[in-house]
Each structure stands twice: as C-alpha cells, then as structure tokens.
Amino acid sequence: MTSSSPATATTSGFRLFTSLRKDTVGGGLLVLAALTALIWANSPLADSYFALRDVEVGIAAWHLQLSLGTWAADGLLAIFFFLVGVELKTEFTHGDLRSFRTAIVPITAAAGGVIVPALIYTALMVSHPELLRGWAIPTATDIAFAVAILAIVGSHLPKSLRIFLLTLAAVDDLLAIGIIAVFYTETITLFPLLAAVAVIIVYGLIASRFRTFFVDKAWAAWVILLPLGLIAWALMHSSGVHATIAGVLLGFTIPALARRRKGDQGLRPNLAEVIEHRLRPLSAGFAVPVFAFFAAGVAVGGLEGLATAFRQPLTFAIMAALIVGKPLGILTSTWLVTRFTSAGLDQSLKWPDLAGVGLLAGIGFTVSLLVAELSFTPGSPEHEHAKVAILSASVIAALLASVVLGGRNRRYRKAENATLGVGQA
C-alpha cells in the first residue's frame, strides 16, 4: 500500500491553486455553485438555504452587520470587480484598449445595451403604470456569469472578444449601479463617500510610489494595500453607493506600466500583472463561486409558480428586454459608432462574435435581482414574477450565447488547426 508524501500533497495543492487562474476552471466552479443553490432553493430543504443566506454577521456599530448573501454580493464580488479594474487598467494603458478609437466602441455598446432594454420594457409596460418603476431591471449585465460562460465555450475565440465583453459589462454594471444610486437610493451620505474617494486616492498614490516594493515583497500588498482597500470599501458601503464601485476604482489605481531594472537588464513585472496573478485564484476559486451560490438561490415556486409568472406582462417585458433588447442595443450602437465615426472594431472581431456577446449580456442576474428588490416590495407577486423573469431570461440568454459562440469557437479552432497544418507541412 502506498501513501502520498507531504511533498506530493503540497505539489497537488499548488497545481490545484494554479489551475484556478484558468477562466474555464473558475467558470466551472461558478456554474456548479449556481446550480447547487438553484436546486437547493427549490427543494424540500429550501428553508435551510434561505436561513443560511440570511444569517447576519459583522459589526453593527460600523453599519456592517450584514447577511451572508449581502456580504457575498457587496463584499466578495468587490474582489472580482477589483480584478476587472486591474485588467481594464492594463488594457487601457498598453493593451487592446489603449487607442481611444478602439475603447470607445465597447463603451458605446454598453450604453446601447442599457438604453434599448429600458426603452423596450417601458414600451411594453406603458399600459401598466404601476409597474414602470421596474424599467431599470433589464439594464444590467452579470459580468461574472457572462465571463464564465465565455471562458467555458470560447477557448479559441479571439482574446479581444473577452476584453470587449469585460469592458462592455464593467461599464454596463457601472451604469446600472449609477442608476441605482440616482433613481433607487433614498439617501446618499456625502461624508463617507468623500472619505472613500480620499482613501482610494491615497491607496493609488502609495501603490504608484512604492510599486517596486510591492512587486518584490509578496507580503507587502496584503499588509499595506489590503487594509486601505477594506477601509475604502467600508466607507463606500456606508455612503449608500454600491460597494463594488470601490473595487473597480481601487483596481484602476494600480500602476500597469513596468519600470526598467537597474543595469538595463530588462523590465520588471508591472504591479497590475503581479497583483492579478496573486489574487485571481482567490477570486475564481472562492469569491465568485460563493457569490454565485448566494445569488442564484431563487425560489421559482414549482411548475405552478412558473405557469403563473409566465402569464404576467411583467415577466414578458423583462424577458424581452434582456433576451432581445440587450443584443439589439449592443449591436445597433456598435454599428452606429463604427459607421459614423472614426472608431473601429478590433480587426480580429467579427459581427457574429459580437452577436454572441450581445446575447451573453442578456444574463442580468445579480444586479437585475437587486433592482427588482428595489423596484417592488420583497415577497410581493410583482417581485416574485420579476425574479422568475430574470432567472429564465438569464438561462435562455446563456444557452443562446453558448450556441452562437460555441459555433464560432469551432470555426476559429478549425482555422487555427488548418494554419498549423500548413505551417508544419
């Protein structure tokens, strides 16, 4: 009988940790966590799921006594948004988005993906003025789920398509959170908001001034930058603004340019790349799956609940806005900005690729569920119907996007194999 040595166990653990840097692995964990929650929330043990989600922990004196579900959505998801900010900073600094002509396209697409679904919902609900308050429900894209689906089905898709989706979804969520702040937040406390901005500025100055130190000393970011980031997050949360905004802003402050080593021996790794490398396994292996687990637990009420919900105009309006409005708004605005301005798509992107991304953007989920809760009284029939509509639309959008992008992925794989075959010949 053989037994594994400590060295072997350590090596296996390291490989598992390293594998979490792959989008496909993180995406698989996210989908598994979401399915587990959905099944649990609609099983005979559903009460235990919701009891777990609603357990409150934290410090009440600091206004941080929150449910586990809220900690996941506002806290753990901020880690993911921080990495989104870091990655976008890199792309805007010296990546695919460094050109304004290229960057403005996904930003405009995001705006179109917010405006058109809102207009479709409003048009369909004009005869139901009591439901018009839900106009912002279909404006949001769930960036974590969208990126996960793209990673699972798009192993050979152009890298620029992921950057396009990241930019689009990040701007989309920022717009949606801005809508929440303006139209759905009763009060925004100015002092903690200004204090949060001040801390973020200090965070960025320290990260920039001592970037080499943070690159060379792995512990330094955890001891110095992490506490500052937590303070900024807590202040942003106290202000009434969605706390994940702090994550994006902190990520944008991380320096993404490399400095030359002494003696002209090449460039040091830049701090953005180093932090992303160190933090991604934590995000992909823990933060995002736990968030998905608490976000996906929507009770649909069985077949009877689904049948009742699908007879409601509210359900139809939300589903139409997400499944049709999102891709329509994204493709139309992208075509307009590339047709009538000097802006242009990345040469590696094709319109069928963008159609798949437009469908992915129909995965509303987290922020959409949040807006639904703010639009209608929790537990009311309207709120329950809105949740069913968001869940159903997100599943349909994910399936349609998987079909389109899966087909595109096979085409790119064949082209790549053909090129390799020619090269080898």
Automatic annotation (TrEMBL):
Domain of life from the UniProt record: Bacteria
Gene Ontology molecular functions: sodium:proton antiporter activity
Any one Gene Ontology cellular component term annotated for this protein: plasma membrane
Catalytic activity: Na(+)(in) + 2 H(+)(out) = Na(+)(out) + 2 H(+)(in)
Biological process terms in GO annotation: regulation of pH
Localization terms from the record: Cell inner membrane; Cell membrane
Chain ranges passing through the membrane: 24-42, 62-83, 103-123, 135-154, 161-184, 190-206, 218-235, 241-258, 279-302, 314-337, 357-376, 388-407
A Pfam short name: Na_H_antiport_1
Record's keyword annotation contains Transmembrane helix: yes
Keywords tagged on the record: Antiport, Cell membrane, Ion transport, Membrane, Sodium, Sodium transport, Transmembrane, Transmembrane helix, Transport
InterPro entries per UniProt: Na/H_antiporter_dom_sf, NhaA
Primary location group: membrane
Membrane topology of the entry: Multi-pass membrane protein
Record carries keyword Ligase: no
Function: Na(+)/H(+) antiporter that extrudes sodium in exchange for external protons.
The family this protein is said to belong to: Belongs to the NhaA Na(+)/H(+) (TC 2.A.33) antiporter family.
UniProt name for this protein: Na(+)/H(+) antiporter NhaA
